[in-house]
Amino acid sequence: MMLLVVLLGFLATFTSGVDEIKNAEMDPLTLEREKLAFVERAIVEILQRGTFPTIFEAKTEFLSSCGCEYAPSPIYWGSKVGMLCKLEATNYREDCGQRCISPRKEDILLICPSGWKNDCRDGCVPPIFETVLERTNFLEKNVDNIVLHGFDYLVIDAQYTKTCGCEDDVSVIQYGTSIGFDCVTEKEDQPDDCGGYRGCINFEKKPLIVFCPAGHTPTCSGCHKLLDKSAPAEERYDWMVSVLTGYMRESREALDLQPRPSQIIDCGCTSAFQSVTEYGKRIGFSCVVKEPEAINANCGPNVLCESPNGETLLHLCPPAFVPNCQDGCGYSWDAKEEL
């Protein structure tokens, strides 16, 4: 189950059954490192691209008491993960957090998510872990926070929810787990291609349709995590990979994950970049290339593929993903034979 896959319903064109995480022949330790590296890189990319004051616990009253006269903003150096507020008052206290001098020589307060290391030079960075279990716990907590607090960046197909029977736009669930979306419906029948869950009513006794993110199951108290606390390590890794893959798919427009305009030239494209939406993992972008020799190093990691109509397509992926012809964007541990 992928994040809000019920809101899409695209059909695979190049291949089928590619949404399962398949492990190529790779020794267990390398496989473990690759999956954890993917999770960490995806988390960093999401936190770089979006603004998540709840994840950073950037509460206005607290920051004001620490000497921040203006609202915090994302940092622009180092890891690019973090928020800052300019200290223009004199009531800064040691318990407020990390006081730094920015690259512009300004007195600032560096704000990091819980558990991250505050580093004036590098911004917010993951701490040093003594064990793989510590790293796994840290990453899973961050995935949970993105699911719980990152819903603002999810682009939801209003036409799909209408087809499912929603009378109006979906709403963020604000009861129970506070995870997922729901909408009121008056229709008794649900289309076969709608994955929303029926069986709940709101306080006005109106029937609801509940939509859940990947790795969660719908209930009338919101969406619950489909991962037992005692789950083995491999299951935890795959759960995080699945959730983050879906999140990046549904948030790519809002998080501005598309290629830079200059990459049209650097990648030798003879067409505009198009979102990969009809095959594979439905992540990444492609363009038509007629002269592969025009591709230069500034294009970034890419792969050339042949489309069903015989065109040569170049695939580009967001950080953490690896381009391939079957998935569009896949995983480093899931090797594919290119077309």
Q: What sort of overall outline do the alpha carbons produce when their principal axes are compared?
A: globular
Beta-strand content estimate: 15-25%
Helix and strand element order:
HHEEEEEEHHEEEEEEHHEEEEEE
Helix- and strand-based class? alpha+beta
- The radius of gyration over CA amounts to 22 Å
Query: Please, what is the average pLDDT?
Result: 88
DSSP helix count?
A: 6
Number of domains: 3
Provide the spatial order of strands within the biggest beta sheet: 1-2-4-3
Structure write-up:
- It is built from 6 helices and 18 strands.
- The protein is of the alpha+beta class and 339 residues long.
- The strands form 6 sheets. Strands 1-2-4-3 form a 4-stranded antiparallel sheet, with no helix packed on it. The protein has a 4-stranded antiparallel sheet with strand order 7-8-10-9, with no helix packed on it.
- A hairpin with an 8-residue loop joins strand 1 and strand 2 (83-86).
- Helix 1 packs parallel to helix 3 and helix 3 packs parallel to helix 5 (233-251).
- It is globular.
- The two termini are 27 Å apart.
